[in-house]
Structure formats: structure tokens, C-alpha cells
Amino acid sequence: xNWLRRHxxxxxxxxxxxxxxxxxxxxxxxxxxxxxxxxxxxxPLGFAMIVLxxxxxxxxxxxxxxxxxxRTRHAKxxxxxxxxxxAHVATPFGSGAPVTFVYLNQRRGVAPTTSSAxxxxxxxxxxxxxxxxxxLLFVALAGxxxxxxxxxxxxxxxxxxxxxxxxxSVAIRHYRWLILATARPLHALRLQPSSxxxxxxxxxxFRLAVVTGLRMPARVLVSIYLLCALHWxxxxxxxxxxxAAFSLTPSFAYVFFVxxxxxxxxxxxxxxxxxxxxxxxxxxxxxxxxxxxxxxAVLFSWRLVTFYWYLLAGGVVFAITAGYPLWKRFATxxxxxxxxxxxxxxxxxxx
Length: 351
Known about the structure:
The protein is mostly helical. The chain is built from 13 helices and no strands.
């Protein structure tokens, strides 16, 4: 799998070059001087906000796993969160995040279906948070000039979130129909009956774990939602701090909206971190508020904290916790024998 590693490294390098190139194009040769004019405390504060957000997410994961009857330690959960965040920004469409999350939890004794369900419930909380935030954004941004009207964009995002949540609800409630509906395509693919039965059982265990997670006590669910809100306010607050550091007075609601849109656009980019689409969306949406001299510097600083920092700090943790074993598993051919990881039934689910 050396070709896969080289391919991912090439994509990451391309993403870094695009980010730097767009920043230079926006601010020109004054980019370096503008960056040096930032107060010394700004970037450390941004890094600290991201690290605090990772710790908040680790506590979130701990509560979700506790809902499945699995006790975990904060340090281990923090390692899982940082590795998963790295895998998200380092792979196209964030495809590496669920694989890394499931793999690391499996190594500490959590069944793959359970960790997949925990990951899914975690994503559901994110969607619920954004859905409840959109009406507030709509009210807060109602007074913007017509050329910056955001009603249509907020409506589209709300429709997408509601549709996704409805589809998830239908899939959970009518899982038997879903299993039956997939039986014919799987049969057409000539999948063995035993394999189809294992897949159906895995789907039922996944569904049970999701339902178990959503049926936790109300106080726990509220706590997880509040932790989710705190994480996103910290992460999206970084850009607000960076813009304010240049003595500009942006609207927090609009800065939040800009990141919501650009991160959504980033999912359409094949490059890690949404490179290209994120920079374009950022420039178009913040251009009316931030002078061109500062726009490139703000963009570079923002990506430094919310993308490059994820690659650097998260990459170190990923290399320690998952990197070599995961690459080894990818590279192992069937004839090489089974993985050296101990069977799941020989590992405890608690730490």
C-alpha cells in the first residue's frame, strides 16, 4: 500500500500549496508583513481553542461509550479524537475518519458495530446542533445588505439536514425493510448466504447500538448536546478571533455562517481539507467585510489553526496510536496470515 501512502501525501501537499497560493493571491507580497502584525497571543489562543475542543469531544465520546456500557479513560479518548480528526482532514471527503475511529476503538475492545454506532450518533448530534442553530442565524443575519442575503443558503442547509435526519429515522424504525431491500442486490452480486446473514446481523447490532445511544437518560443527552455546541463554538470562534485581531469588527453570526458554508463546500472537494473549494468560498463570503490586504492573512492564519494544526498535532498522535498498525493491516495480503491484533473476545471492553 505504499502507492496509497504516496497518493495521500501528494494530495496533502497539493492542499497546502493551494492554501498558501490563494493567500498570496489575495494579499500579495504584503502577506508576510501582515501576518507579522498579528498580536503574539492570537495564534497560541487559536491553537488552545482547538485543543480544548478536542478535549470536549473526548468527553463527548466518553459519554457515548458509557451509554453502551463501556468505561473509558479521557486520555485514550483524546487520542482517538485527535487521530480521527487527522484522518478526516488528511483524506478526500473525510473518508478516513470513520475507519480510524472504528479501528482504534476495536483495538481497545469495542465491537466494530458498537463503535460505528457511536460515531453515527456523534454525527447525528452535530446535525441536530446545526439544525437548531440555523433559525438563530437566520434571525441574526436578517439585517444584512441585499447583496449579502443568506436566506436561501440557510434554507438549503436546513432542508438537507432535515432530510438526512428523516432518512436516518426511517432507516432505524424500518430496519427490517432495509435488510429485505438489500437482499436482492446482494444476491445479484453473488454474495454467499452466510455472508448475507452476517451482514444482516451486523446491521441489526448497529441499529441496536444506535437506539441504545439515543435512549440514554435525558440529562446525558443534553450534556452531550451542550458539549457538541461548545466544541463548534470553540472551533468556529477561531476565525472570529483572527479577524478581530486585525481591529475589524465582524458579526459572530456571519463568521459562523461563513464557516458553515465553506466547510460544507469542502466536502465537495477531492483534496484533503476541502482545499480549493474552502478557499474560494471563504474569499467570496468574507471579501465584502475584510479588506483585501487582510483577507489573505486571515485565510492563512485560519487554515494554519484549523487545518495545518490538525495535520501536525493530529498526525503525530495518529502515527503513535494507529499509523503503523493501520498501514500494516492495509498492506497485509490474505496469504500473509491474520493480523497480530488479539481477538476481540480476548480483550476487555473497559479500560
